[in-house]
Amino acid sequence: MGVELKNRTALDTRDSLDELSELASTAGGEVVGDGIQKLEAPIAATFIGTGKADEFARQCQGQDVDTVIFDDELSPAQSRNLEQVFECKVLDRTALILDIFAQRARTKEGKLQIELAQLQHLLPRLTRFWGHLSRQKGGIGMRGDGETQLETDRRRVQDRISRIARELDVVRRQRATQRQGRQRNLWPLASIVGYTNAGKSTLLNALTGATVLAEDKLFATLDPTTRRLRLPTNQNVLLTDTVGFIRKLPHGLVEAFKATLEEVVQADLLLHVVDASHPQAEEQIQAVNAVLEEIGASGKPTIMVLNKVDRLTANGHAGGEKFLPRFPNAVAVSALTGEGLPTLLAELNTQVRPIREFVELSVPHAESAVIARLHAVGQVIERNYNGEQAWFKVRLPPHLHVEFAPFIVQELQLPTPADPPA
Ligand SMILES: Nc1nc2c(ncn2[C@@H]2O[C@H](COP(=O)(O)OP(=O)(O)OP(=O)(O)O)[C@@H](O)[C@H]2O)c(=O)[nH]1
Ligand SMILES: [Mg+2]
Questions:
Q1: DSSP assignment, residue 228?
Q2: Nearest residue to 85 via CA among 107, 111, 101, 61
Q3: Which ligand is nearest to the CA of 341?
C-alpha cells in the first residue's frame, strides 16, 4: 500500500511501490495485489483514509491475505489500528527491510547490527506488539534474533540494546586494529558503493577474482569484503564491497550499520556503481548520495561506474550518454562481460595517484575532537604526543585538507612507495 503525498509524483509512488513488491518477494512473500491512495497528508489514526482502508480490507479478506505492507513508516498506533481494520499483520517498509537483513546476516557483526536495528524499531511498538494476533504464525517481520525479544518488557529490551552496542564497540575496535595493519601497507582504500542490485559484488569479483555471492536479489551482500587490486602500473589498491543502499533506507539501520559503513567513510576514493539499465537509475543515484551524506562520506573523490551496459540496446552506451555530461569521469562498464573494465582501471590509476600525499600536522593536546576526527578520516602513519603539541604524519584525502588547515605544518608529496611483489 502506497500513498501519493503532495510532494510525490504518481510515477515515484508507483516505482517505490514496485520496489516494495520486489522487497516482499525477496523476503519470501507472494504479492497478490497493491493499492495507492492520493493524500494531502497522512491521516493520524490510520495513515490512509478509513474509506480506502475498508475497501482494501475487503479485498484482502477476499484474497486470504495474511500481511499488508505499507511503503512508508507507520507509527505504532497506526499499525495497531490498521491491523484491526485489515484483521491481519501490518508491516511497514522499515520492518520489511529489517526482516530481509535478518535473513541475510551471516557474520556475528551483521547479526548484532540487525538485532540492534530491530530492537530499536520494536521499542516504541512494545506496548501491545501484535498482542491480538497469533504469535505462532511467524513469517515476514517476525524473524531474526530480534524476534526472541517480542515477549519481553521494555527494560529488558533496553538492556539488550546496550549490551549489543557494547559488543559492536568491540567489533569496531577490532576493525580499527585491522585497519592499522593496512595502514602499514599504505595502500589507498577504495570502496564500492551503490544501490542494491547495481552489480557491486559482480564488479569486485570481476576486478579482483574474489568470489563474493552475487545474485539477482536485493541486499545479497551485507558484510564487507576487502580484496587487493593491482592496477596496470603495479600500484595496489584495497577494494571493498559492502552493503547496498535503497531509498527510504531506515535511519536506524544506517545507524546500526555504522561499523560496516566505516569502510566507506574511511575510503580515499569511492566507486559509485549504477545499474545504467535500470529505469530509475537517476533516483537510485540520488538515494545513494543521500545515504553517503548521512554517514558523512559525501564529497569524496568518486568514479561513477555505469554498469550493465551490455543490457543497453542501440550503440551500447546509451546510458553513458545520458549520465556522462553530469559525471565527467563516469565509466561505462559491464561487470558481467568485462566490457569497459580496462578503462575503469585506467581511471582508477589517475584518481588514485593524487591521493598518495602525506600531511604533517601539529595539534594542541587540548583539541581532542580534532585529534579524534583526524584518526577517523585519515590514516595516521606516525604520531608523537611527547612535545608541547601532538604531532602527526597522516595520509589525508585532499578534500579534507581545508578542514585541518589551521594545524597543517607541511604537505609532503612523496613518490608512491614500491609495492612488495605479490
Ligand atoms: N546484464 C548484466 N547483469 C549484471 C551485471 N553486473 C551484475 N549483474 C547482475 O545483477 C545482479 C546483481 O548483482 P550483484 O553483484 O549481486 O549486485 P550488488 O550490487 O552486489 O547487490 P546487493 O549486494 O544485493 O546490494 C546479478 O544477477 C548479476 O549477475 C552486468 O554488467 N550486466
Ligand atoms: Mg552485493
A1: E
A2: 61
A3: 1
Note the CATH number of domain 187-354. Answer: 3.40.50.300
Query: How far, rounded to the nearest angstrom, does the alpha carbon of residue 78 sit from its chain's CA centroid?
Result: 27
Distance CA 305, CA 272 (A): 6
Query: What superfamily does domain 1-184 belong to in CATH?
Result: GTPase HflX, N-terminal domain (3.40.50.11060)
Are 149 and 157 contacting, i.e. CB atoms less than 8 angstroms apart? Answer: yes
Residue appearing with cell numbers 497528508: 41
Query: 68 C-alpha to center of ligand 1: Å?
Result: 29
Which H or E run contains 170? Answer: helix 154-185
Domains 1-184 and 187-354 share a fold: yes
- Which residue's CA lies nearest to atom 11 of ligand 1? 216
Query: Domain ranges in the chain?
Result: 1-184, 187-354, 356-412
Helices marked H in 87-107? 93-104
CATH class of 356-412: alpha beta
Sequential DSSP letters for 363-379: EETT-HHHHHHHHHHSE
Distance CA 287, CA 293 (A): 10
Contact between 164 and 116 under an 8 Å Cβ cutoff? The reply is: yes
Instruction: Let me know the angle formed at the C-alpha of 323 by 317 and 329, rounded to the nearest 5 degrees.
Output: 95
pLDDT digits over 225-281, tens only?
Answer: 889 898 887 788 899 998 999 988 877 788 778 777 888 988 889 999 999 988 889
Q: Whose CA is nearest to atom 17 of ligand 1?
A: 199
User: Torsion angle, CA of 26/28/33/37, rounded to 10 degrees?
Assistant: -60
Residue 117, amino acid: A
Percent of the chain with pLDDT over 90: 40
Residues contacting ligand 1 via CB (< 6 Å)? 194, 196-202, 214-216, 218-221, 244, 307-308, 310-311, 334-336
For atom 13 of ligand 1, the residue with the nearest CA is 199
| Alpha helix segments (H runs only) across 327-367 | 341-352
Interval 51-76: pLDDT, tens: 999 999 999 988 989 999 999 989 88
